[in-house]
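FYI - complex with S-adenosylmethionine, inputs then prediction.
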Amino acid sequence: MNQDYENFVRLMKLKTGIDLSLYKEAQMKRRLTSLFQKKGFQSFQEFFKNLDRDQELLQEFLDRMTINVTEFYRNRSRWEALENKILPRLLEENRSLKIWSSASSTGEEPYTISMILSRFMSMPQISILATDIDEGALERARHGIYAERSLAEMPTEDKKKHFVKDGSVYKISNDIKKTVQFKKMNLLSDPFGSGYHLIICRNVLIYFTEEAKDILYQKFSQALAPGGVLFVGSTEQIFNPGQYGLEVEDTFFYKKV
Ligand SMILES: C[S@@+](CC[C@H](N)C(=O)[O-])C[C@H]1O[C@@H](n2cnc3c(N)ncnc32)[C@H](O)[C@@H]1O
């Protein structure tokens, strides 16, 4: 790591609590370099000086480092496996389910779970915790207003039942909104809860170093109740899940032994 970036990482940790050294270095450096160059800065040092006094630039930094890309029913076949195999087992074994969407971005992921769960139970029984490091994304999630492309993978019945079209955007129903509680949380530094029956952590681990991932799998496993499931993204298969006390229940679903 060159000195300029190393100093930047140290200063940003002090300023924001975000530890960039736990993210894959080449990727993160490339993304941030293109941002500061676009802004006309010559170095990470100059970038930091400006970030330190410009709230808007700090938000742009966060937007660039977080990558909020998401959609409803992302990789639809996995949500079908959740609905047809994983949830029926979990509901057979537990009277109620404790669920956490751990990098929920703008809300499409936790709202997808809520729509699926509404086929198994009444709305007031559904309660999902959704967390993300990016307050801007969480705010958009709380509003629940989406462009058409976010809904491309969604079954038509869900669209009809849970959304109202308003001009070119779709508004999610209050009933679904009420089932999800959004909260800011940094996966790399904040404490995890416990006793979860389902934890969804998709398309964020790919940005972290191997060491950070290893710690996170350990922590996810500890946060699960016995028989609980960790649902990961489609490029995030866990190599040797047994070392974390997990076993494969289906592709991208890991059950706590
Ligand atoms: C590509 S999105 C994935 C959204 C959703 N899980 C999905 O699969 O569609 C990655 C999300 O991870 C969040 N993120 C990045 N670093 C994080 C961290 N240290 N703690 C919590 N969330 C983080 C970003 O803010 C972003 O919203």
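The two ends are 39 Å apart (CA to CA). Residues 66-70, 74, 103, 105, 109, 132-134, 137, 186-188, 202-204, 233 surround S-adenosylmethionine (CB under 6 Å).
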